[in-house]
Design brief:
This protein is mostly helical. The protein has one domain (about 1-10, about 15-105): Tetracycline Repressor, domain 2, CATH 1.10.357. The protein has five helices and no strands. It has helices at about 1-5, 20-30, 35-60, 65-85, 90-105. α2 runs antiparallel to α3, α3 packs across α4 and α4 (about 65-85) packs antiparallel against α5. The longest helix has 24 residues, at about 35-60. It is flat and about 45 Å long.
């Protein structure tokens, strides 16, 4: 569980928060066939795949579904933190993620 929750550690460094480089790039380049957009999409898929592997190792009943949910929480936390210039959304997303993880991993 802790490996999955580690996704929601706030970024180090000073304010202002800039959000996710990959999400910001996707917003700025409208052409979905542009090589940079393809790279961004590949990165987002890889992020979810790595989270799914961790979720599977942790015993999640449906690791892919859990990973997709956590990726959405991460993207939302990153965007909200940047919009508010506040790291609190990472802690809020971590709390929500803990609930999702608890429900996704069967008790022994």
């Amino acid at each position: 569980m802790e490996r999955l929750l580690a996704l929601f550690v706030p970024p180090n460094g000073d304010l202002p928060l800039r959000g996710c480089l990959f999400s910001n790039t996707a917003v700025e380049i409208a052409d979905t066939e542009h090589p940079v957009r393809v790279f961004v999409a590949d990165h987002k898929r890889d992020f979810a795949a790595r989270a799914a592997a961790i979720a599977g190792d942790a015993g999640a009943a449906d690791p892919t579904a859990l990973a997709d949910q956590l990726a959405i929480l991460f993207d939302g936390a990153s965007a909200r933190a940047a919009a508010l210039n506040d790291i609190a959304p990472y802690a809020q997303a971590r709390t929500a993620a803990a609930t999702l993880i608890t429900h996704a991993i069967p008790k022994p």
